[in-house]
Design a protein that fits this description.
Strand order of the largest sheet: 2-3-4-1-5
Radius of gyration: 33 Å
Structural class: mainly alpha
Strand content: under 5%
Helix content: 55-70%
Largest sheet: 5 strands, parallel
């Protein structure tokens, strides 16, 4: 075989091309993923597709190198942004991104020259937001297509950025296209699974060529019709994979032993010098810079140029801007795998040496490449030094930084002078690992590194460093719901109060959080006040906002004090991120205090700030939990169920998901669906840990499970659950959650636990506590008067379901006292509440009691019949979304208006289009007006 043949004609793929074009035309689609095995023609398909856009469309491509996490963070996106600068000019970029010192300056020297260098510590979300802004602003004027090749090799940071863009991209003339091999990256498969829940994401899976299409490909390769029988033989042997068809076309009669022999057949026709250069290029990677190749080879310049020309003519390599790329990765892999290990090791060493010589003019990923090749060459000292430098260069890309640091530790014992080579002790390496894990939330690895570092450190000589490690380990433990105050108290003893430090303030604030959620409010208040003192003396606004918020939580039972502290927290929250933190804890306090309307207003403020700063994914979970709880309390069950349904489509932390499932269980049980309630409770139980941070939800779980057992007439099961819940050591510290539990278990007969003793041990600090205590006392000992106290308490809190249950208890007490006259209006009010809420069991119970007592319940007059327009099965939430679609809002704008995620907004839009039987948002808006679906009155 003289060369590796290339088919110039684009053959087949009609269905795949049609799917891509449909996606491009659909204004709701912003991302297309093209999945398939190697050699199937994914890149060729996408390249052909992008030629079909208008001439003014901007098409840019970024490729993920096979180094993955050992390479440069954000590699494909760096290529994309640099391509945009080359195509459009840096002036256009500064026009669409009018900010000082943009984070993108770190990638783009031209931008840094015009807008200033990036801040040393650039916020990751800011970088993501700037990239999204650039792409969307450009797409507002012309079509922008971003192609990301080989996503199965994407580094962690690139996957995170891709997920961010997919979740936040507006459906306009911006199209993201990614190619990947599904079998090669479990991490990417998880990312893709999450992205595919977004209706704006389409998946295209190219199929192998048919026999007819193989014949058309061969005809294009031969320039004539193939001989009889050739098509069938090559079709069977190639299995319809286009790359294999090309490889077999030159020798259809040969029968290679394996794929490598098939792909390497061209080598017989090239010179030994060309083959040597090819092997060096294969060791360098799928793409290789000309300067590196020339520096690493022993061939002279003339021979190098001749060999490269030969490889390009044989269609093995293609020329790029500054180097070369294998026409297909399978060819590179075949060349690499054909070499003996000792050959590969020698060539890795040559490349490492060439990179070392080029250290005065390094490329972006110079240190990462050097670390990779030195490690593969077995040069541990050089690999260690390069990995240390690569870790320093991976600013903000914590996953990649952590891998380089782990490589340093791996090689530490193999390099006798490791400390001298990198200018840092092993302890410093461990500290950087802990810092990366602390910033990125890598819990287990961070705790393990902190454990080792604390074994090495001399706390007497290095108290500040030891304190930081203790603090970071405590925070990481708290992320896993396994935290305590032990590490924080140890850290505090190492930090002097004069002069004050931010670290001491952070330790005090974290202590306040641990104590407030552990129910130790007095200690929490003391620690938070100390943190405030540090923050105000140092002018640390972010710390002050957190500390004041924890003070508000700690003093929640003193409402005026708490309100004042939260006001100070708002004043100190100088940035949106701090505001989200303040609102988060303010909503927790308001829900606990029973001020649910104010809680919802605060939650919506926080969610709006989260949207504006692209922090919805990190800030929303707890806010959504508190919102659902507030809606349930106010009797707005339909809204709560829609919110829960929307929220559970997202990737949530286990604790938040469990809390939402428990809210779902409470509503469905009250509506009479004990099966759905049991399912949700079981799912929640599987998600909850045994840690102290999850204690309130463990108690709530037992409360829900007891109620389900009683509903199913399983008193023994209810008694077992109650006994287990009431045996928790720190029960009095969670009195807000225990009081509702007691109102349920008080209905269980012959419970061995002394409930009155438990009740006497609990504090009553909020109006909600008072109401629950009144129900408990009425259930245990009370007559009509005790139940009237419970009714008055719940009426004041405006919580209809609890009011209805108390009214029912009061009516039963009046009937027990033979006071039918007093019982009748109580039963009628319960019936009205049950009808409003859709609380079927409560409605059935009140009707049964009334019938048994011979009392009539007056049905509310039916509303006069009116002719009703069809709503096409749209839910109220979908009608809200449709109203905003008709106003021309994007998914992200809809999400901000309705306080949901962009992904959830997209799901609603997709469902609306399906229900209305239309294809576009414009058609949906027209249908909404035609069928009067936007009328404000309920239909």
């Amino acid at each position: 075989m003289v060369s590796f043949p290339v088919c110039g004609a684009f053959v087949g793929r009609a269905a795949e091309m049609s799917a891509l074009q449909d996606a491009a035309r659909d204004p709701a689609v912003h991302t297309v993923l093209v999945a398939g095995e190697a050699g199937l023609g994914k890149s060729r398909l996408v390249a052909e597709f992008t030629t079909r856009f208008d001439a003014d469309a901007v098409v840019v491509t970024g490729r993920c190198p096979e180094f993955g996490n050992d390479g440069m963070p954000f590699a494909p996106f760096v290529s994309v942004m640099r391509a945009l600068v080359r195509q459009l000019g840096v002036e256009r970029l500064t026009e669409v991104l009018p900010v000082a010192r943009p984070a993108l300056s770190r990638w783009l020297p031209e931008l840094a020259a015009q807008a200033g260098s990036a801040e040393p510590e650039t916020d990751r979300i800011r970088l993501f937001g700037e990239i999204l802004t650039v792409l969307e602003q450009l797409a507002a004027r012309q079509t922008v297509v971003v192609v990301l090749e080989d996503l199965h090799w994407a580094d962690d940071s690139s996957r995170e950025l891709l997920a961010f863009l997919v979740a936040n991209a507006a459906p306009r003339d911006l199209l993201l296209i990614g190619t990947y091999r599904p079998a090669e990256s479990p991490a990417l498969r998880r990312t893709v699974a999450a992205m595919r829940r977004d209706p704006g994401v389409r998946l295209v899976v190219p199929q192998p060529l048919t026999r007819h299409e193989v014949g058309r490909q061969l005809a294009a390769l031969f320039g004539r019709e193939p001989e009889p029988g050739t098509v069938s033989r090559i079709f069977v042997r190639s299995k319809g994979i286009p790359l294999f068809v090309e490889a077999l076309s030159g020798s259809p009669e040969d029968t290679p032993d394996d794929l490598s022999e098939l792909l390497l057949g061209f080598q017989a026709a090239v010179s030994p010098e060309t083959r040597a250069l090819l092997q060096l290029a294969a060791v360098a990677g799928a793409t290789v810079r000309h300067a590196l190749l020339a520096a690493a080879t022993e061939l002279d310049e003339t021979t190098v140029h001749g060999a490269l020309r030969e490889l390009i003519d044989h269609q093995v390599l293609t020329a790029q801007d500054t180097g070369y790329e294998f026409r297909h990765i399978l060819i590179r892999d075949a060349v690499y795998d054909q070499m003996l290990p000792v050959q590969r090791k020698l060539l890795h060493a040559k490349l490492a040496h060439a990179l070392t010589e080029a250290s005065e003019s390094p490329t972006d990923n110079w240190a990462g490449e050097l670390a990779y090749h030195a490690y593969a060459a077995g040069d541990s000292p050089l690999a260690l030094s390069a990995a240390w430098q690569a870790a320093a260069a991976a600013t903000g890309a914590y996953g990649e930084q952590l891998r380089h640091l782990d490589r340093v530790l791996e090689l530490w014992d193999a390099v006798p002078d490791a400390q001298a080579r990198i200018g840092a002790e092993r302890l410093a390496v461990l500290e950087q690992i802990v810092e990366a894990c602390y910033q990125a939330g890598f819990v287990d690895r961070g705790i393990a590194a902190a454990d080792e570092a604390l074994r090495l450190i001399d706390t007497d000589c290095m108290p500040q460093r030891a304190a930081r490690l203790l603090y970071q380990r405590a925070v990481l433990n708290n992320h896993s719901s396994g935290g305590s105050d032990r590490d924080l108290l140890s850290a505090l003893t190492l930090l002097t109060d004069r002069p004050p430090t931010v670290l001491r303030g952070e330790v005090l604030a974290e202590l306040a959080a641990v104590h407030v959620f552990g129910g130790e409010t007095a200690r929490a208040e003391r620690d938070a006040l100390a943190a405030v003192e540090v923050a105000e003396e140092l002018g640390a606004a972010v710390l002050a906002a957190r500390a004041y918020a924890y003070l508000g939580l700690a003093t929640a039972e003193r409402s005026e004090t708490a309100v004042a502290y939260f006001a100070k927290a708002h004043a100190a929250a100088a940035d949106p991120r701090s505001l989200v933190t303040v609102v988060l804890w303010e909503s927790v306090a308001l829900v606990a205090a029973g001020d649910h309307t104010a809680a919802i207003a605060a939650i919506q403020q926080g969610l709006r700030a989260a949207h504006e700063t692209f922090r919805f994914a990190e800030a929303a979970p707890i806010l959504l939990v508190k919102w659902s709880q507030a809606l349930i309390a106010l009797g707005r069950w339909r809204e709560a169920l829609e919110l829960i349904d929307d929220s559970l489509t997202e990737q949530l932390p286990p604790l938040s998901e469990a809390a939402l499932l428990l809210s779902h269980a409470r509503i469905t049980l009250a509506q009479g669906d004990s099966t759905a309630a049991s399912t949700s409770a079981d799912r929640a139980a599987a998600l909850l840990s045994d840690g102290p941070w999850a204690r309130q939800y463990q108690i709530l779980l037992r409360t829900v499970q007891c109620a389900i057992a009683l509903d199913l007439e399983q008193p023994q099961r209810a008694a077992e659950l109650a006994a287990e819940a009431l045996s928790i050591d720190d029960l009095p510290a969670h009195h807000h959650e225990v009081w509702p539990l007691l109102t349920i278990v008080a209905r269980i007969a012959d419970l061995p636990t002394d409930l009155d003793s438990v009740a006497n041990s609990l504090r009553v600090t909020t109006a909600g506590d008072t109401a629950h205590r009144a129900v408990f006392l009425a259930t245990r000992h009370g007559g009509p008067g005790a139940w009237q106290d419970a009714v008055a308490a719940w009426r004041g809190l405006r919580q209809p379901y609890e009011l209805g249950r108390s009214l029912l208890g009061a009516a039963e007490a009046e009937l027990a006292a033979s006071n039918r006259t007093a019982a009748q209006p109580l039963l009628r009010e319960v019936a009205d509440i049950a009808a409003d809420l859709g609380a079927t069991p409560l409605a059935t119970t009140v009707r049964t009691i009334a019938d048994r007592a011979g009392l009539t319940l007056v049905d509310r007059a039916a509303a006069p019949a009116t002719e009703r327009q069809s709503t096409f099965g749209l839910t109220p939430r979908e009608r809200d979304v449709l109203r905003l679609v008709a106003q021309g809002l994007s998914n992200r704008q809809i999400a901000a208006e309705l306080f949901i995620s962009g992904n959830t907004a997209g799901v609603h839009v997709s469902r609306i289009l399906t229900k209305l039987g239309v294809a576009t948002r414009t058609e949906a808006a027209a249908a909404a007006h035609t069928h009067r679906l936007l009328d404000t009155d309920d239909q």
